[in-house]
């Protein structure tokens, strides 16, 4: 059982360390706030006194901090100890941040994988939980069985160190708009004296429908052919007025939709009115020019 060190014990980091401990891996943990390690020690983890102690304890170092900058800062005092070890980062950040961290790790003689957990902490360790990684192929091959403890759907995207961060941001872009839409709906339902919980089943079905459309839209985008429009840009454009009416009737602020409405209007103006809504991709390739403040 491969010894592993987990650095960063927020809710996700704690879930990662818990999964390793329960799978039988000798697990060392470290956090800036030592008290966060106490529940893990009770499970059988070893608490390192310093970050350098944590790094030297294992050949596999898994960090779960907020950003790539935070990761490099936290590991700074242990930089020399990283030589020859595998560093796996599971944090948010841009592709540029992943490339910078990969270069930093290489300069220290460490082998590097950037990764992302595509689920909530409670799902860590489940057979269908998705984690994807990019970077050193040999590191992934050597530690794949250990990393699979964190989720059964474990994928290596390629040797380019920034691919996991790219997909993390590309897929993650869907989260806030989807949640904001649900929150707007919840506020509108409550304005009628109903509970937000009454819409959960219907919202779930709606998300299932959206999921079923993703392969269709992806194919249209990859082919650049938007002419088979089951849902056209003009159809969405007509719905703009409905959003305004809902806001006026319920007193719910729908202003957050304005940039999305503008995107749809720009697509129609560009000649995509009768095309599939996936043609918005073409408009997104050419961002609107915004005048700089004087």
Automatic annotation (TrEMBL):
The keyword Protein transport does not apply. Residues 4-158 form the 6-phosphogluconate dehydrogenase NADP-binding domain. Keywords: Oxidoreductase. InterPro entries: 6-PGluconate_DH-like_C_sf (IPR008927), 6PGD_dom2 (IPR013328), 6PGDH_NADP-bd (IPR006115), HIBADH-related (IPR015815), HIBADH-related_NP60_sf (IPR051265), NAD(P)-bd_dom_sf (IPR036291), RedAm-like_C (IPR048666). One of its GO terms (molecular function) is 3-hydroxyisobutyrate dehydrogenase activity. Signal peptide: none annotated. The keyword Cytoplasm does not apply. Its EC number is 1.1.1.31. One of its GO terms (cellular component) is chromatin. GO terms for biological process: transcription elongation-coupled chromatin remodeling. Residues 163-286 form the NADPH-dependent reductive aminase-like C-terminal domain. It comes from Nonomuraea gerenzanensis. Belongs to the HIBADH-related family. This is 3-hydroxyisobutyrate dehydrogenase.
């Amino acid at each position: 059982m491969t010894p592993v060190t987990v650095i960063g014990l927020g809710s996700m980091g704690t879930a990662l360390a818990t999964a390793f401990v329960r799978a039988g891996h000798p697990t060392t943990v470290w956090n800036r706030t030592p008290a966060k390690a106490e529940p893990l020690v009770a499970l059988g983890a070893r608490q390192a006194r310093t970050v350098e102690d944590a790094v030297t304890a294992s050949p596999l170092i898994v960090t779960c901090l907020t950003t790539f900058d935070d990761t490099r800062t936290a590991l700074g005092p242990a930089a020399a100890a990283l030589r020859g070890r595998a560093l796996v980062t599971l944090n948010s950040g841009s592709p540029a941040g992943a490339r910078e961290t990969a270069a930093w790790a290489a300069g220290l003689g460490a082998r590097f994988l950037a990764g992302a957990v595509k689920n909530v902490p409670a799902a860590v360790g489940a057979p269908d939980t998705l984690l994807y990684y990019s970077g050193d192929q040999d590191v992934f091959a050597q530690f794949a069985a250990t990393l699979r403890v964190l989720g059964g759907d474990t994928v290596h995207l390629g040797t380019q160190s920034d691919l996991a961060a790219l997909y993390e941001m590309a897929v993650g872009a869907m989260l806030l708009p989807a949640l904001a839409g649900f929150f707007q709906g919840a506020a509108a339902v409550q304005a009628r004296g109903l509970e937000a919980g009454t819409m959960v089943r219907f919202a779930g079905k709606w998300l299932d429908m959206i999921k079923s459309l993703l392969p269709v839209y992806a194919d249209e985008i990859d082919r650049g052919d938007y002419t088979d429009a089951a849902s056209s840009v003009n159809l969405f454009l007509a719905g703009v007025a409905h959003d305004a009416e809902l806001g006026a009737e319920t007193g719910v602020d729908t202003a957050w939709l304005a940039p999305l409405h503008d995107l749809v209007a720009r697509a129609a103006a560009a000649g995509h009115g009768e095309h599939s809504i996936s043609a918005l991709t073409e408009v997104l390739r050419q961002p609107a020019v915004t005048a700089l403040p004087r």
